[in-house]
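Pilot study result, target chain (103 residues):
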Amino acid sequence: MIILITVVILLACAVLAFFILVQNPKGGGLSGTFGSMSSQIMGVKQSGDVMEKGTWYTMGLIGVLCVLCVMFFPKPVKVKEQAKQPTQQSAPAAPSPAAPAGN
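Predicted structure:
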């Protein structure tokens, strides 16, 4: 499920990039690019509104999908604690007694 949501997020990012790149910061944007065609179909004034709404809706979709993706992540498995038995520590080996020097 995470892979599907990730793919949809990437597609929405591509659509968002399209919306942002088509807009002109000074208001020309799509209406200035297509000239009379856009004014015949949806009007020059409305093309900016459509692009702005598309930008906001796409950003909202990406945000919701990111939160949804986090909800589907598997929860980390807790490491089973070892039985709390006292561990026996061995004492360091006692040095062997030195043999007396040769007779």
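One observation from the pilot: The helical segments are 2-22, 29-34, 36-41, 44-71. A full batch analysis is planned for the follow-on phase.
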